[in-house]
Design brief:
Oligomer: heterotrimer
Order of helices and strands of chain C: EHEEHEH
Chains: A alpha/beta (313), B alpha/beta (420), C alpha+beta (90)
Largest interface: A-B, 49 and 58 residues
CATH topology of chain A: Rossmann fold
CATH class of chain C: Alpha Beta
CATH architecture of chain A: 3-Layer(aba) Sandwich
CATH topology of chain C: Alpha-Beta Plaits
Shape of chain A: globular
Radius of gyration of chain A: 20 Å
Shape of chain C: globular
Largest sheet of chain C: 2 strands, antiparallel
Chain lengths: 313, 420, 90
């Protein structure tokens, strides 16, 4: 009797010796993202041995342990640095990192912008629930202005930045944003991100009803999921038929201001609790392949060494 | 792009000719990729041992390469930058990979990543960078990831005196990262040791699955000396033990007689979980006290069971010594000279040079303390190893010579102390 | 007009955390919540197989299977229970 495809995926990709149901709160989007990631990997047809799933610390950090890949749960904010080491040491491995908004752009911000600038072939999935959830709802770099948080009981004084814009201006060659509501769309984005040869950032707008929603009159998963449904605005996919995306001008990222209409749409609206934001592929540009270039460097330096050696005879 | 084939480079570059233990190939069946035992000595073109004039930092690079290191991630910092610079030239030539990361935290993370991917990895820094590396260093201790961290000590604290020698990071090397953790701390005093002890550091890291801190200082790092690079075939190079059970039986953190579990490589079929959380035998996070106790005790036991091999010291004229100097790093050089000066004056003096600082070589130090009337511990700090010596001491009188002004302690100062 | 396809909703209550997403977002109101808040199939016939619930269940607790022939659905049901038992031993 044939099992449903989705059941096969569960049996094949979820670790059998890990306790389910998983650790996340009822209704948390992380489980949805894990499902989406598994479907994307299955669609591409990567073997489980060649996938390395690394994560930082936080709710997102607990994702890899449930999946039957080479999994790594690193220190807070540093997932991308570990992934960089693994990718350089064994380029044939497919590196996927899963981080929260605080993990990737708070404590991990320095590594995030440099991983983007370096454009090594890594996939960075950033789950943006706009709060430090695991530690009890403290505000994060993406907590909107005026929102309530455990460390902003009087209303948040700081302003949120847009992770996607940050990635684009830092030089990532593929940046997309999805939500945990638009799951088939998310599957596609993650798949595109993994296929991309370069630093691929997939920002996933998610929610934390337990620590963030509760303090901002959105105390349950359904309400927050509805908000995602209503706030997301699909941007024309730049990948489609090569036409430059309306979101972000393809090619070199010039001054942030000129990032794009959707970019501008993003930055102020993400600083509010219910402003619209763009979803879809925001940038998809071609850049030199770090691994290939380093391989050329190896060959060239070996050649020079030999020539120098012969000259020495 | 196919993986890097570890071909034996016979290029006649004098300083290389290093055994081509390159990046591991992807073995389809997940069998051990590198033969743990050294291959029998092979005749190689440059059989004549090579005499080189090298700087301490350069010798460390050659030692690392000889030990099979094929990955370096670092960040520029005086007085350790030469290691990065030379690695950026040498590694591509040896089929390895060099990268300069955005900070020392990232460098430590990349080193751990590369090691998890099966490649021996190194980073090198100085005081400020070493402080930044502590958290990830703790991860390497907890996840038992072999790697070597060179700390070329300079005047501290804080920015301190970047171009002056000091030994103020000794306690940090042992206790820098939080929590009780296993770690090995070695120190070098000469350029020859920079080569030789770096190889030892990698061997310990691989054998005990532990980060090894290699303490140098600005003097040793920047001193140039004529040294003989041993023939790579003569070198004992240890590789981590790979799992031999089939993947589905593999427990990444199971106990065994040595307390050091075989280590699989990411991508070779032994998919498992690596985490900084306290974990059980399968590597999964646990808070069950019995599993926590087993895991943490094993990690400590694996080092203590290896004390005999790990605790390296060198003695000079100690046989009949009544006054002994216990020193390490550049100060050991001055101490050796001072001992000779004392001997010329008929004073029975001797030197115990500590190569291993932690785990503290208690047996060797205890023996000297029992044998001698007085022991002198000269250090370029306010007294760090001297505290360990006093802790071990029963009856002997221990004197310290502490110099913190950024200048190397001179033989005369030590001799002065000996003759009192 | 092609024969209208019907679907079965398998809810694996061991993993379901009663978050309510499936009940709230099912476009055809196939589910209702029992007293513990867990989904119960109210009207399987209304299901159009959009799999929204399956895709959005954070705990992998819902499986939708298309029902072609009557005999097959019985087999599907037994398979599902055996899977549940297998998972129970975990």
């Amino acid at each position: 009797m044939k099992m449903e495809k989705v059941e096969q995926l569960r049996h094949y990709y979820l670790r059998h010796d890990k306790k389910f149901p998983h650790v996340w709160c009822p209704g948390c989007g992380n489980g949805i993202i894990l499902g989406s990631l598994i479907r994307a990997i299955d669609k591409i047809g990567l073997s489980k041995d060649e996938v390395v799933l690394a994560s930082g610390i936080g709710c997102a950090g607990r994702m890899p342990v449930y999946a039957d890949f080479n999994t790594l749960h690193t220190t807070h904010g540093r997932a991308l640095t570990f992934a960089t080491g693994i990718k350089l040491a064994r380029p044939e491995l497919n590196l996927i990192t899963v981080m929260g908004d605080g993990d990737a752009t708070g404590i991990g911000g320095n590594h995030f912008i440099h991983a983007a600038r370096r454009n090594l072939n890594l996939t960075a999935i950033i789950i943006n629930n706009q709060i430090y959830g695991m530690t009890g709802g403290q505000y994060s770099p993406t907590t909107p202005y005026g929102a309530k948080a455990a460390t902003a009981t009087g209303g948040h004084l700081e302003h949120a930045f847009s992770i996607a814009d940050l990635a684009v201006t830092a030089g990532a060659s593929f940046v997309a944003r999805g939500t945990v509501y638009h799951v088939p769309h998310l599957d596609k984005l993650i798949e595109q991100g993994i296929r991309k040869n370069g630093f691929a950032v997939i920002e996933i707008m998610a929610y934390c009803h337990t620590q963030f929603g509760r303090r901002n009159k959105m105390g349950d998963a359904v309400t927050m999921m509805e908000k995602l449904r209503d706030r997301a605005v699909a941007v024309k996919d730049p990948g489609a038929a090569g036409s430059p995306g309306t979101a972000v001008a393809a090619g070199a990222s010039d001054t942030p201001g000129a990032a794009a209409s959707a970019g501008a749409l993003d930055s102020d609206s993400l600083d509010t609790l219910d402003g619209k934001f763009a979803i879809g592929v925001l940038t998809d540009v071609e850049k030199p392949d770090y691994i290939a270039e380093y391989a050329r460097l190896r060959a060239a330096s070996r050649l020079n060494a030999q020539n120098a050696g012969n000259a020495g005879k | 792009m196919s993986d890097k084939k570890a071909s034996r480079e016979n290029d006649n570059q004098p300083q290389s000719g290093v055994n081509g233990v390159g990046a591991p190939q992807v073995a389809a069946s997940g069998t051990a990729m590198r033969v743990p035992a050294r291959e029998p000595a092979r005749s190689s073109q440059n059989a004549v041992p090579r005499r080189r004039l090298l700087q301490g930092n350069e010798a460390m690079v050659e030692g690392a390469l000889a030990a099979g290191c094929r990955f370096f991630a670092g960040y520029p910092i005086t007085p350790a930058s030469e290691i990065s610079e030379l690695m950026s030239v040498r590694l591509p030539r040896e089929n390895g990979t060099f990268i300069q990361m955005e900070d020392e935290i990232a460098s430590m993370g990349a080193v751990i990543g590369a090691s998890l991917a099966g490649v021996k990895s190194l980073t090198a820094t100085s005081g400020p960078g070493f402080s930044l590396m502590q958290e990830n260093l703790g991860f390497a201790c907890m996840a038992e990831v072999p790697c070597v961290v060179v700390n070329v000590m300079r005047g501290g604290p804080s920015t301190g005196m970047p171009t002056s020698p000091a030994q103020g990071d000794v306690m940090q090397a042992r206790w820098g990262t939080h929590g009780d953790h296993p770690i090995i701390v070695l120190s070098v005093a000469t350029v020859a040791e920079c080569f030789e002890i770096t190889v030892t550091a990698f061997n310990f890291a691989e054998k005990y699955r532990v980060p090894v801190i290699l303490l140098s200082d600005e003097v040793v790092a920047h001193t140039r000396e004529n040294i003989v690079l041993p023939e790579s075939a003569q070198l004992e190079v240890v590789d981590r033990i790979r799992p031999s059970v089939p993947p589905q039986w593999y427990k990444p953190y199971a106990d065994n007689s040595r307390g050091v579990p075989p280590m699989a490589t990411m991508g070779d079929g032994y998919r498992h979980h690596v985490t900084g959380l306290v974990h059980d035998q399968s590597g999964y996070p646990t808070e069950r006290s019995d599993e926590v106790k087993t895991q943490l005790k094993r990690q400590m036991r694996k080092i203590s069971s290896g004390f005999g091999e790990i605790q390296l010291t060198r003695s000079f004229m100690l046989e009949d010594a009544q006054v002994a100097v216990i020193a390490y790093g550049a100060v050991a050089r001055s101490a050796k000279r001072a001992v000779r000066m004392a001997r010329r004056q008929g004073i029975k003096a001797g030197l115990l040079q500590l190569v291993t600082l932690f785990p503290f070589p208690r047996k060797a130090v205890d023996q000297v303390l029992r044998q001698c009337k007085a022991v002198i511990v000269p250090e370029m700090n306010f007294g760090q190893i001297s505290r360990e010596v006093k802790r071990v001491n029963r009856t002997c009188r221990v004197f310290t010579v502490n110099r913190i002004d950024g200048q190397l302690i001179t033989p005369a100062e030590i001799f002065q102390e000996i003759s009192n | 007009m092609a024969k209208k396809k019907s679907y079965r909703q398998h809810i694996f209550y061991d993993w379901c955390k009663a978050c309510g997403l499936c009940v709230a977002f099912c476009p055809k109101q196939v589910y209702r919540r029992n007293e513990e808040g867990q989904p119960v199939v109210a009207d399987a016939a209304k299901c159009v197989g959009c799999r929204f619930c399956e895709l959005h269940c954070p705990d992998f607790a819902i499986t939708i299977s298309a029902v072609d022939a009557p005999s097959r659905s019985a087999a599907a049901h037994t398979a599902q229970t055996s899977i549940e038992e297998a998972a129970d031993e975990r």
